[in-house]
Amino acid sequence: MSLRAIHSAASGMEAHQFSLDVVANNLANASTTSFKRSRTNFEDLFYQDIKLPGTDAAAGETGVGTSVGLGTRVASTSLDFHQGSLQQTNGDLDMAIVGHGFFQVDDGGIPAYMRAGNFTRNAQGQVVVGSADSGRLLQPAISIPDGTVSITISGDGFVSVEDADGTIQNAGQIQLYRFANNQGLLQRGENLYVETPASGAAISDIPGANGLGTIKQRHLEASNVEPVRELVDLIKTQRNFELNSQTIKAADQMLQLISNLRQF
């Protein structure tokens, strides 16, 4: 029936509208530090079986059946955590994670995790996220003493500071965190993720140990969005949306034709 086609096509339009929203968000964050692109996954809906495969027939059991699907829907969105390119900066507290892992910050008493390493220090010398809206402390907390003229961060997270007299002291060691399932993390915005039952509990270790990445000072990880790839997805999504709308028009014309048959 044409009504079945209209329903299937309408579900396709709705699903591709959602996909367009995901592509638009990816493109909007093409310059966001350490942003990870999302991918839309689709799944087909249930089927109406007119005749099941293997139904008894006069000539024996049939090898095939007759069924028609009733459309599609969005099954999930997946995060792509592949490494973004590294961009060199002049910030002593700018850090990029080369490999797996997350920084932990204090988000109002709740541990949150991020790949973005654009850190700075506040008036008390504490290392915080470089945001004008909030002062989330890096965890474990690291403080930079007054009079520091140079900061050095090693690949395994040791923070060394040097004062004007040339005295070097250790200011602490940065920890990285990993999860059993990164896909299960909840995106909170502001480059933050929080753990969920699907991600598993955060596991901490020093950079470079047990599969964790290392830290590269004076660098930031760029977004892993590839604009050309997103534009291709944008065009495919737009075309699929248009094709579904054409299906609805064709089904509507068939219904009009059936309705007009009573006039003859």
- Overall shape: it is elongated
Mean pLDDT: 90
Report the biggest beta sheet as strand number plus sense, adding barrel if it closes.
3 strands, antiparallel
Cα distance spanning the termini: 21 Å
- Tally of alpha and pi helices: 2
| Total tally of structural domains | 2
What helical percentage do the residues reach? 10-25%
Molecular structure report:
The protein has two helices and 22 strands. With about 260 residues, the protein is α+β, with helices and mostly antiparallel strands. The chain folds into two domains: about 1-80 and about 225-264, no CATH class; about 85-220, no CATH class. The strands form ten sheets. The chain has a three-stranded antiparallel beta sheet, with no helix packed on it. A three-stranded antiparallel beta sheet has the order 14-15-16, with no helix packed on it. A two-stranded antiparallel ribbon has the order 1-6. Strand 18 (about 185-190) and strand 19 (about 190-195) form a beta hairpin. The protein is elongated. The protein starts with a helix and ends with a helix.
Task: Give a brief rundown of this model.
With 264 residues, the protein is of the alpha+beta class. 23% of the residues lie in helices and 35% in strands.
